[in-house]
Amino acid sequence: MLGIVFMIGYAVFPFDLIPDFFSLIGIVDDVMIFGIVVNWLIQLSPETLKERHKLKG
After folding, report:
1. Which of 37, 34, 55 is CA-nearest to residue 46?
2. Could you say which of 6, 9, 18, 41 has the lowest number of CB atoms within 10 Å?
3. Taking the CA of residue 24 as centre, how many other CA atoms within 13 Å lie in the half-sphere pointing to its CB?
4. What separation, in Å, do the N-terminal and C-terminal C-alpha atoms of the chain show?
5. Dihedral (CA of 11, 17, 19, 20) sign
């Protein structure tokens, strides 16, 4: 639940690590943060869920 709240908060919060007006670089940092959080959520998920969806983590 914390990871989902973090992702929503990061998307809604007006401050970024790198502002989005730096065209490609500003968007890439957002994608990286979302990827890190999704990976973290996969690692915290139960083993049965990982096996059912064939996830590594």
Report:
1. 55
2. 9
3. 0
4. 18
5. negative
pTM above the 0.90 mark?
no
Q: Is the dihedral of CA 9, 13, 15, 16 positive or negative?
A: positive
| Residue whose token pair is 């690692």 | 43
In this predicted model, what pLDDT tens digit does every residue of 15-24 receive, in sequence order?
666 666 667 7
**Cβ 6 vs Cβ 14: under 8 Å:** no
User: Which pLDDT value is given to residue 57?
Assistant: 60
Enumerate the H helices of the chain as residue ranges.
2-12, 23-44, 47-52
Question: What residues contact residue 6 under an 8 Å CB cut-off, 6+ apart?
Answer: 37
